[in-house]
What does this fold into?
Amino acid sequence: MEGIYFCETQVYKLMKKFTDFDLIEPLQQSLKKVGYETPTPIQQQAIPLVLEGHDLLGIAQTGTGKTAAFCLPILNYLHLKNIRREPKHPRALILTPTRELAIQIHDNLTKYGFFLPQKFAVIFGGVSQGKQVQSLRHGTDVLVATPGRLLDLINQKHLRLGKVEVFVLDEADRMLDMGFLNDIKKVLALLPRKRHNLFFSATMPTAIKKLATSILVNPKKIEVTPPATTVELIHQMVMYVNKKEKPNLLVHLLKDKSFKRTLVFVGMKHIANRLAEKLEKNNISSKTIHGNKSQAARQKAIQEFAAGRARVLVATDIASRGIDIDGITHVINYDLSNVAESYVHRIGRTARAGSEGAAVSFVTADEKSYLANIERATKQKIEVITDHPYHSVEAENASVVSVGKAKAKIDEAQGRKTKSRRFHRGPKRPAKAPSASRSY
Ligand code: AMP
It folds into this structure.
């Protein structure tokens, strides 16, 4: 029986296979090559709409298959239109917040476009621009870019957006979190007024709705939540611990060999570095990724982890956004996020493709309100594990203060610590402009 999906006021018959879509043969061939048979829910809904030329507002996270949902119809369109490639003038622009996502999208484009003559380029900051400029000079049909490098290369006249026909804004909410709103506005001002717009965001706060309204024309809206089964397959646990014992609890857990491939989320980059040292001292192979690492170093760390040469990857939220690594057995929230959606996003890195996984969250007295927030938002009570050597009764019995107060308390504590370290290490460096990405 065919499934029925409700999307706005329309009812879509669900396509069961990719071969049911009106996609050109070279794309069907590449889908066979990559082994995709059944479209994911977002692909089922988005592909026909985008092929029909509708603007799209997609509420979906990474992991739902949204990349193919927009890449396949774009490639289909560009190939059928068969326009001659021109140096420096891409026909489709995919704007995405992080280098990792940009690389991932470009890799996917290359896979899906394997049997097509179209060319794809990716540009992002943190690496020298030489090769990127060269690829633009040779001509590219689809350009994947992060905002900073995009504007930089436009300013240097290596690139023009005047012939862009399809514009994709990916992970819009994360873009705004990272302070890219002004850059997005600058990019929009450089795009032709008449264009096909695809807008994706995992969440829809007011600022994102406003941005979407300013970009999209009569959009079709589709919403896909990560399959509930994913979260159901994750064994979620909480361990109460005092802040200073967190490193010891982490080492204690990682001594258990069932933690084969573990992703550890930390709140700040200096914590990631300190933990890596601690793990090394305990003969636990690990890699770190955070905003201060060069692109090459981040990619190398991810590769080492994905290939199983490091058991542990310690990451900040922003650096890890969109990373798609199979076989993660455990996610550890070393520092709990105060945003429930981040929690769901983080733990969703394990238990992919129907396999089981576990997520352990370390909770201090100060973080207890974050936990309450997460439990309220996800409508579940997370199992508390007290059977470990660092269990903190104080944290367990701490009263829940409001999230705002708890955050202020943590910020204050961290601020004090930073000042005293600076005092011992020498003069304070000049203050930098605040930036969301720097604080991770
Ligand atoms: P995304 O949300 O686009 O990052 O996709 C998440 C993962 O799902 C990627 O590893 C894709 O290669 C994979 N994927 C996307 N669509 C399909 C599909 N229809 N069948 C199997 N795997 C898929």
Q: What stands out?
A: The chain has two domains: 4-223, 234-417.
